[in-house]
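Let us practice reading a record.
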Amino acid sequence: MGQRELVFTVKQDGDEPFPRELFSFYRTVHHLASEKQSVEADGVSQLAHDATPLLRNSSFRGVIYLAPRPLAGIPVAAPYLTAVLVTTEEIEAAQCYGAARVLARLGQVARAFPFPPWNDRGRQPVVRGDEHASAERSLRRAASAYAERGS
């Protein structure tokens, strides 16, 4: 179908069950790939605000796809993409400012450079909803001031 494998590495705490919620996401990706719509490195997917999160007990409603980032002890034979789960605010920030900013914040918090290739359902968001709106207002003010100086 042309779609590379998607690798979601999920940190397990204690006796947490395997995250079966991802199966429905895989089915959606498979369906889209059968219609020649595939995801690639540096791409993103965003679920609706009211959609069921991608992991139980999380607020992950988005995915950032990246070039393969191998983890020791986890062999993957097929060509693949590393999939990083993100919140709605994080995916919106990634779409606005670039995924590198969000991934760098994730890496800083997890102490994993350049970003953690694992997903931790218990992690705190690295972008707050009000932070994104505030940054957009600042950008609009700066663009307006620049336009006024140029006139």
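A brief commentary: The CA atoms of residues 4 and 130 lie 35 Å apart.
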